[in-house]
Amino acid sequence: MSTFKAPKGTYDLIPPDSAKYLAVREAIAAPLRNSGYGYIETPGFENVELFARGVGESTDIVTKEMYAFETKGGDRLALRPEGTASVLRAALEANLHKSGNLPVKLWYSGSYYRYERPQKGRYRHFSQVGAEAIGAEDPALDAELIILADQAYRSLGLSDFRILLNSLGDKECRPVYRAALQDFLRGLDLDEDTRRRVDINPLRVLDDKRESVQKQLTGAPLLRDYLCDGCKTYHEEVRELITTAGVAFQDDPKLVRGLDYYTRTTFEFVHDGLGSQSAVGGGGRYDGLSEMIGGPALPSVGWALGVDRTVLALEAEGVELDIPSATSVYAVPLGEEARRVLFAKVTELRKQGVAADFSYGGKGLKGAMKNANRSGARYAIVAGERDLAEGVVQLKDLESGEQTAVGVHEIVAELESRLG
Fold first, then answer.
1. What's the rounded Cα separation, in Å, for the pair 323 and 19?
2. Count H helices, E strands: the chain?
3. Which ranges of the chain have pLDDT less than 70?
4. Is 25 helix (H, G, I), strand (E, B) or coil?
5. Distance between CA atoms of residues 287 and 263, nearest Å
6. What is the residue-wise DSSP string for 269-289?
7. CA angle 321, 325, 328 (to 5 degrees)
8. Is-contact 381 394, C-beta < 8 A?
9. pTM over 0.85
10. Which of 178, 230, 256, 327 has the highest CB neighbour count under 10 A?
């Protein structure tokens, strides 16, 4: 057994379970690719200030959960705790917003890191697929992203998830609400850290999961009662577009999300089969983030969906994904000449796009056929000296057990025909 183990709060993806994660990533990405979103990939670490400014200095992510370090050259870097700030930074650096084709629509997939108390559904290293539409203020964009996420989940077979929706207002109406909320919160019995948060970002207190805090929030002013006419109209159009598309949602006036950059539309996907860690994804509009990190005004909207959480949701619903076998054909050579001939045929099959594997290590027929069955292959090609002397190989259907002799030079065409 190895001396080393995966760090606490992390996990390894290994076959066959890793195929499930790949299938989830593909299902989430598929509707994005069909809707004009191009793939972007950013570094696993960024300047600390990018997240401090963008995510928010008062958030738990920045104050407690971010993996920050100093390089030998004195740079202050952090492993990325979320994707939006990095993607927007990359888009600005590459001047994608100056192409004249706004919004810039991007999707990404990768690993993110937060120092949290490990528990089921919450890891220190986790995987997300995200999407961002940068540079346009349009309720249809907000609705599009919510509909695409709903489409992705349903394509996987999920049905027991809910979409929570709220509006956080904008720079016109939120300050008025902020002051009213601060007045309310200052009258509560809160610990010192939470009182500091009341001064910096009182909306974050609404997102506090502790029961001792939540009990005191009954009767807190709601942002929907303070929305300006522009925000009300915008939010109603988002709701109308989602409803017309046949996507069900629930209005949640207390939904805040854990990052400072959100404005107006905010939403969350929750699954009741996951216990306390019920959120499987979420996002919203972040019209001021570009300016926060030194860019021009670029109203934007996006989301991130957790791959780990989505896999747990599938397990909670008992959904089995239809994942094709990694191998379609397995070659079993008996003797040195057969090894040479069948290895060439396996190479040829692979060039034709057929998933093929080979019995390595000089195993006997019995052991090699066991491996062929374990591989999940539909067909096995078996050949020995007598077969090759007759110019044939034996093609065995591993489902029916039927075996037929096929000419050595015809085997590739025969398998292509049978596998379609």
1. 7
2. 16, 16
3. 1, 57-60, 258-260
4. helix
5. 6
6. EEEGGGTT--EEEEEEE-TTH
7. 155
8. yes
9. yes
10. 256
